[in-house]
Amino acid sequence: QVQLVESGGGLVQPGGSLRLSCVASETIFSMSAMGWYRQAPGKQREFVAGISWGDRISYADSVKGRFTISRDNVKNTVYLQMNSLRPEDTAVYYCNTIPVQEYWGQGTQVTVSS
pLDDT tens-digit profile of 35-62? Predict the structure, then answer.
């Protein structure tokens, strides 16, 4: 059964931090590159950060130096540590494989506002 469950979002002030988690079913997590994506209101979903099975990492330019992606291959979990958050980071955050597979989880809402 394909499963992606994101958590950890919330309301935070500008400059604050959040840590997102995504638990995936082993069938899609094992040996896969994993990524975080986000979709802001009225905008298309965009790539945020990715990590390969061998821990090669990439980031969107907009989050470099502020966000850190990591994975735990025992727990089938990928994380996104988000620091120095900005209002423009407000979005629903999703995880998926790289390249994406058809199923998406429900996502987790991140709102950055004072």
Answer: 999 999 999 999 999 999 999 999 999 9
SS (H, E, C) 35-104: EEEEECCCCCCEEEEEECCCCCEEECCCCCCCEEEEEECCCCEEEEEECCCCHHHCEEEEEEEECCCCCC
- Torsion sign (Cα): 95, 98, 99, 101: negative
Pairing between β-strand 91-98 and β-strand 10-12 as defined by DSSP bridges: unpaired
To which residue do tokens 């790289």 refer? 98
- For 20, 51, 84, 111, the CA distances from 17, given in Å and listed in that order, are 10, 20, 6, 11
Distances, alpha carbon 10 to alpha carbons 16, 29, 73, in Å: 11, 25, 25
Q: What is the mean pLDDT of the chain?
A: 96
Helix (H, G, I), strand (E, B) or coil at 28: helix
